[in-house]
Amino acid sequence: MGNTFCKTGIIFADTTTGSNINLVTDSVSSSYTLSSYIDATISSLKSVFGDKLDGDISKEFVSLNGKDAYIISYTISQNDIKVKATQICFIDNNTAYILTITSRNENYNQENIDTIISSFKK
């Protein structure tokens, strides 16, 4: 990925439910398209999590508040704990904005996730 700079900010974290929301911005080379950036991200996630991935990583192209975006979802398993992650990404002016939402499977609420996703904009 671009990796000229990468900034992370935790928006919300709750250790009792395993829920976390964070926002990362990443400088993206102009040679990347949104699609190629997402493919590189998925490849990196597969490399990092390896056999901890429970199933495959799904990706969906969406229009989010007037911007082309992708939503990727995956589940990570470790020590009998499953954590579901959803990432939303769009690129604006060579900066990728990635919102990551994680929660233990038993606490994952799709309605809440959809509300968070629909509010994500620059």
For this entry, give a set of tags.
6 strands, alpha+beta, globular, 6-stranded antiparallel β-sheet, 2 helices, 122 residues
Can you describe this structure?
It contains two helices and six strands. It is α+β, with helices and mostly antiparallel strands. A six-stranded antiparallel beta sheet has the order 1-2-6-5-4-3, sandwiched between helices. The longest helix is centred in the middle third of the chain and has 16 residues, at 34-49. The relative contact order is 0.21. The model is unreliable at 1-5 (pLDDT under 50).
Please provide a brief summary of the model:
The chain is α+β, with helices and mostly antiparallel strands and 122 residues long.
Low-pLDDT regions: 1-5
What percent strand?
over 45%
Question: Radius of gyration from the CA trace?
Answer: 14 Å
Tertiary shape: globular
* Secondary-structure class: alpha+beta
Q: Mean of the pLDDT scores?
A: 86
Main sheet characteristics: 6 strands, antiparallel
Distance between the termini: 20 Å
SSE blueprint:
Layout: E1 6-14, E2 19-27, H1 34-49, E3 58-64, E4 67-78, E5 81-92, E6 95-104, H2 110-119
Antiparallel strand pairs: 1-2, 2-6, 3-4, 4-5, 5-6
